[in-house]
Design goal:
Blueprint (H helix, E strand, L loop, with lengths): L6 E6 L5 H7 L7 H14 L15 H8 L7 E6 L9 E9 L5 H9 L9 E7 L2 E4 L5 H4 L8 E2 L9 H9 L2 H11 L6 E7 L7 E6 L6 E2 L5 H12 L7 E4 L11 H14 L3 E5 L3 H12 L8 E8 L5 E7 H9 L9
Parallel strand pairs: 1-11, 1-12, 6-10, 10-11
Antiparallel strand pairs: 2-3, 3-4, 4-5, 7-8, 8-9, 12-13
Length: 341
């Protein structure tokens, strides 16, 4: 993907790699343990870990080879990355698939100490990064030694969960931030007066919305998916300040009549927090209302991009970039840019 902007909308047919792009963007070169934590979480979101059924949780090499599209016969592989396009310096990550009997006794001891059982799998995935070995295990404590247990990724259908409580508590501490947050939500939640962290309906704290025509607050979980989706995005943007946030199927649960305001709210909040957005969609209305929101935010237009992922004849995937002017032209002349097989 070339010529990336601050606000990036990604299209493509099924199985062209839209979600994979978002997962790849969770790579964190500054802290490799954070990257491994992000990687484990993305695998969990895909349902490739089942903590109830797999007591050990050391990653199965077959799963990882399939996930990374590595030939099943390979015992080693390399990935290259560059963090500076001007220096053109390539950095390497080596991945080794080996039997546990071939690794050092000290690593076996560490694995046994940091997993739920002493029964290790027959084979294991090991990352070699900057002269250090990282066995990839969900319960291996070095993998979990991340700066924070948050990943900047909102998956498809991710709306209300308990994590919203600590996320919102950070906003609630600032009167100015809270007022702006409530104002943004008022576009989707009519007659909203206040947002509280409450325990009135259960023993656990939860987010509750207080309306100006009601004596009792209503749990956010009882509201529609569109309101919960916007709440999650708005509450996670400040966490990603000066970084990036990936959102899969951003238009999930959003009614078309509110889509332009939905986009405007997100774009303004992303700009205020200096967050780079990467969002996927299949929806042509998603592009149209993205464009209409940008029409009313002319100073944002130069930072907007659309990417189309298309599978070509050799079965590889190619990315095509459209600037604001280019996807404006495509909309006006009804040119299909969502991608085809």
């Amino acid at each position: 993907m070339e010529d990336i902007g601050q606000f990036n909308l990604i299209f493509g047919d099924n199985n062209t790699g839209k979600t994979t792009v978002l997962e790849a963007l969770m790579f964190d070169e500054r802290n490799f343990n954070q990257f491994l934590f992000n990687l484990y979480t993305s695998l969990s979101i895909r349902g490739l870990f089942d903590e109830k059924k797999i007591p050990n949780l050391v990653l199965d090499t077959r799963i990882f080879k399939s996930f990374t599209n590595i030939n099943s016969e390979q015992s080693k592989s390399k990935f290259y990355y560059s963090t500076n396009l001007f220096k053109q310096t390539k950095n390497e990550i080596h991945i080794e698939f080996t039997r546990v009997e071939h690794i050092s006794q000290s690593m076996i001891t560490h694995l046994k100490r940091n997993t739920l059982t002493n029964d290790l799998p027959k084979s294991i995935v090991i990352f070699h990064y900057k002269d250090k070995d990282y066995p990839f295990s969900a319960m291996y404590q070095e993998n979990m030694n991340s700066p924070y247990s948050y990943i900047p990724y909102i998956s498809f259908g991710d709306t209300y969960r308990d994590d919203l409580v600590p996320f919102y508590s950070n906003i609630q501490d600032s009167t100015k931030q809270k007022k702006r947050f409530i104002q943004s939500l008022s576009l989707f939640i009519d007659k909203i007066e206040d947002i509280e962290i409450s325990a009135s309906y259960s023993n656990e704290p939860h987010i509750a919305i207080r309306f100006n025509n009601s004596d009792r607050p209503v749990p956010l979980a009882m509201l529609g998916d569109g309101a919960k989706r916007l709440f999650r995005i708005l509450v996670e943007l400040p966490i990603c300040k000066h970084r990036r946030l990936m959102i899969d199927e951003i238009d999930t649960g959003i009614h078309y009549s509110r889509f332009k305001d939905f986009w405007k709210t997100i774009l303004v909040a992303a700009k205020e927090n200096d967050v780079q957005i990467f969002a996927t969609t299949h929806n042509k209305d998603g592009l149209r209302y993205f464009y209409e929101a940008l029409e009313e935010l002319p100073e944002y237009q130069q930072d907007a991009r659309c990417f189309t992922l298309s599978r070509i004849k050799d079965d590889s995937v190619k990315s095509y970039t459209q600037t604001y002017e280019q996807f404006e032209h495509a909309l006006h002349y009804d040119i299909e840019i969502r991608g085809r097989q």
